[in-house]
Design goal:
alpha/beta; Spore Coat Polysaccharide Biosynthesis Protein SpsA, Chain A; eight-stranded mixed β-sheet; two-stranded antiparallel sheet; 10 strands
Length: 277
Amino acid sequence: MEYNDLSIVIVTYQSESKIFDCLKSIPKNIPVFVIENSNNQEFKKKIQNDFKNASCTLTGANRGYAVGNNIGLSQVKTNFALVLNPDAILEKNVIQNFSNFVNNNPDFWLLGPGNNQNTNYNFSSSKILEVENLKGFGIFFNMKKFNKIFFDENFFLYFEEIDLCKNVKKKGGKIYLDKNIKIIHEGASSVSINKFQELEKNRNWHWMWSTFYFHKKHKGFLISLILTFPKLLSSIIRSIFYQITRDKEKRDIYLSRLSGLFNSIIGKKSWYRPSLD
């Protein structure tokens, strides 16, 4: 694999305080497609002025991780792509080590870094492991294995990469971790605006919506309902309790969980969006 056979896709949403360190860690000869989930013209101008290897597409609205990555991956012309979070930083020799991996494992579908949030796996004496799932902060794609279908756009937040990996495995595709490839990831910090309560409501709503949708997609409606019913009951009880005790913040969190799960059960799309303006 040559360096000019890799492109990088980064989906952003109000990530100005994070993405510039990420972009600085990327070699200047690798094309980068930044997909900004807003209509922030100033952000686009700064990205393209400061980083000549980067282009920025504005989606016009917060359309989520799955849609943003699909837009970016559809622009890739190289044989390989790296989907990267804006709060991730490439360590030294990442591209060279990826090239080494490709030369020895040309039939892979997906590849993740073998450090940071992927450390639950035991590498023992091997530096490369075949695995079932990857974390979404950094995933290499063998573009030749995909037919313009990547992430399920019904997901707005959470479970997108788990669903992707499950679909790859159903097709007999191989997914690996390589301990030689290291990507630093801060985690839960891609959005630069500090609105903790609104972010918590957003996370809880989408976690519950995506949980039910994922299980329904792969196991059926009844099994999904059985698996999530304890969470539904807990959200109802806790919402009532915090209403009685007048703890508005916790009440709103559990109402968000209840709303997300209920909307998923009745088949509504993942419509909730955080108010961060």
